[in-house]
Amino acid sequence: METQHFSYDNKIVKYFAYATILWGVVGMLVGLLAALQLAFPVFNFNLEYTTFGRIRPIHTNAVIFAFVGNGIFAAVYYSLQRLLKARMFSDKLSWVHFWGWQAIIVSAAITFVLGITTSKEYAELEWPIDIAITIIWVVFGWNMFGTILRRRADHLYVSIWFYIATFVTVAVLHIGNSIELPYSWIQSYPVYAGVQDALVQWWYGHNAVAFFLTTPYLGLMYYFLPKAANRPVYSYRLSIIHFWALVFLYIWAGPHHLLYTALPDWAQSLGVVFSIMLIAPSWGGMFNGLLTLRGAWDKVRDSATLKFMVVAVTAYGMSTFEGPMMSLKWVNSLTHYTDWTIAHVHIGAMGWNGFLTFGMLYYLFPKMWKTKLYSEKLANAHFWMGTLGMIFYALPLYWGAVVQTLMWKEFTPDGLLAYPNFLETITQILPMYHVRVLGGLLYFASLFLMVYNLLKTAASGKCADNEEASAPALHAPKKREKGEGLHRWLERKPIQFMILSTVAILIGGAFEIIPTYLIKSNVPTIESVKPYTPLELQGRDIYIREGCNTCHSQMVRPFRSETERYGEYSKAGEFVYDHPHLWGSKRTGPDLARTGVPGGKMYKTNVWHYNHMLDPQKMNAQSIMPKYPWLIKDELDISSTPAKIRAMTTLGVPYDEEPYPANYDQVANEDLKKQAQEIAADLNANGIDVTSDREIIALIAYLQRLGRDISVKE
Amino acid sequence: MKLVSHYLQGIADVGFFPSISLMIFFLFFAGMVWWAFKKSNKTYFAQMESYALDEDDMNSSEINNN
């Protein structure tokens, strides 16, 4: 057979690898800042650009999409070429992909600092950037499939299946969750509201973890672990089961348990058996990784690369066990809204994604620069420091979460809340936040050992931008050959493979999404729930801009410990005009769903809100809430009101019905001013010198509206 | 999420969705396991297990493990 000569594109891999390192440092530095802010509020710097509400999405997005994202692309561009014995399909596409992705990251950072956000966790980017992501993602997929079609290898190795599933599913998730209606050149409202918005958001959120943080990294594991250990994969059979079970199951099993109460008994039993059985694919993957090292454990002692990979795979096993446990109802009632969630995701991000990326980089640099690692000792130091950092990060948070949740739920013998003041429960766990900073600092500092080590390694060798290679031409009969199994045939049919994996995720997706669409007509409207006034709408957008929902939930669960603390539990019908929903997922501060109920447990006066936003520490010395002085200084931009009202009307909020006058968008600002003057007058009467055109007035209007609708007695 | 499941239950025949997806998944999973454990695939699997390790790696002096 004819031998063909070609070259691998190493330059693009090198760039993606450098980008991973750079964004890793940036993302974790911002994470360290966020941790500091929670421990010492002074680190919010009293600046709108640097408060926790804006910093937190920068950290999460930087780590997920910039650090892990570039890590995925470095891994794909390196391994795909070698597994397929072909150069990437188009150098041009590779570079459009690279620079496009970096531009998206930079624009994300800028918009978040400016408070431009959709508020949806891990999907905070606004519509123009969403479109850019879609385009660049298609470029990536085009380049990948082009390469697959031009390959010289017969079969698609298991890593490539994971890459294909990643590409397809992330595309579906991103588009599905980003359907939004722009009201300005940069901002938008999601088409879904309330319950529906929450369901779609967490369908996305759950599966983004699966298909951005997990499947591509499993592909990475299946390639780089055998390479680094120089051992064959433990079981290909297990990897096939691992792949199909994971792809099918993840998307299917997300918030699916919501439906279980409506299931027939036989299906419930089967479901339970299956849920337990299905820890198997995740753990199958873990064992497949760990057992690849059978008979080679002595190498782990000597190689930092392998140490990183072993801990990464173990962290994957821990996270995938902990996750299902946290979805059990009674566990969830304890862990939800606490730092347990934060600890859980950090085991995944620091352990699984972080350590696997580091392992890959320690393998890639010597390989690509054709030299030895500069210092195995430094790499080992990085490993131990990073591991310690992770432990010091996660353990205090687990401990703090347990302490806090038990405090939330504790009653005195008289049946009163033992800790009625939310702040007490924060003050109690504050030392844990301090230790967490130390853990984060260790992990962050250890990065620099890697940076130095890798730069030194690169300096001691030379990376050929184009690495010469040769391979026989592809022998690929179109039809199935005699004796060729179905899956074996499928493995050399990329298009059919992609279609089948798309079908696999769509079946799961469809059966989960259809009820979500049906639910809209099933949420009973509550007569007294009315659309927001224009001023409240503006205030709500300030609430979103400042990221209040990162620390305050708006969802009182039907537990006595919560109704005693906050008031009436939340009902689906309350959220029908909430584009987007602001339920939140973490309570660093108290729930705000009932803060506007006059005479309610959470009620505060306008004056209190004003003073509290200006200086929370003046009201409660122990408070860790940032100060928001600019809300008092800055004038509210009311020029956006008509466009916002029009967008909301298009989305089904009845501003076009009675009692609203026709063309309400044009006169809405009159209502806005009137309501603002009332609030300003109240503040003035209580000795506060403020005019009615400040942002704080709108925010107070919104806060005073929360929960008020259903508290109105008819 | 009790709040949500309550309303989801109100959808007519909502039990159909989880039941059918569970069945589809179960059948698919069972089929996949059956296929993966078929005897005839043994040699092929062995070959694929070392697929990532090309000749270059097999003979190399383990650059990374020094």
TrEMBL record, chain A:
Q: What does the record give as EC number?
A: 7.1.1.9
Transmembrane in keyword set: yes
* Start and end residues of each Cytochrome oxidase subunit I profile domain: 1-457
Q: Where is the chain membrane-spanning?
A: 12-38, 58-78, 98-117, 129-149, 156-175, 202-224, 236-253, 273-293, 305-321, 341-365, 377-399, 433-455, 497-518
What PROSITE patterns does the entry give?
COX1, COX1_CUB, CYTC
The principal location of this protein is: membrane
Q: Name one GO molecular function term.
A: oxidoreductase activity
Q: InterPro entries recorded for this chain?
A: Cyt_c-like_dom (IPR009056), Cyt_c-like_dom_sf (IPR036909), Cyt_c_oxase-like_su1_dom (IPR023616), Cyt_c_oxase-like_su1_sf (IPR036927), Cyt_C_Oxase_1 (IPR000883), Cyt_c_Oxase_su1_BS (IPR023615), Cyt_c_oxidase_cbb3_su1 (IPR004677), Cyt_c_oxidase_monohaem-su/FixO (IPR003468)
Its recorded reaction(s) are: 4 Fe(II)-[cytochrome c] + O2 + 8 H(+)(in) = 4 Fe(III)-[cytochrome c] + 2 H2O + 4 H(+)(out)
Q: Which CDD domains match?
A: cbb3_Oxidase_I
Query: What family does the Swiss-Prot or TrEMBL record give for this protein?
Result: Belongs to the heme-copper respiratory oxidase family.
Question: What NCBIfam families does this protein's entry cite?
Answer: ccoN, ccoO, PRK14485.1, PRK14487.1
How is this protein named in the record? cytochrome-c oxidase
Species this chain originates from: Marinifilum caeruleilacunae
User: Which gene carries the instructions for this protein?
Assistant: ccoN
UniProtKB/TrEMBL annotation, chain B:
Mark the transmembrane ranges.
16-37
Protein name, per record: CcoQ/FixQ family Cbb3-type cytochrome c oxidase assembly chaperone
* InterPro entries listed in its UniProt record: Cbb3-typ_cyt_oxidase_comp
Would I find Membrane among this entry's keywords? yes
Source species, domain of life: Bacteria
Q: Name one Pfam family in it.
A: FixQ
**UniProtKB keywords:** Membrane, Transmembrane, Transmembrane helix
Record flagged with keyword Transmembrane helix: yes
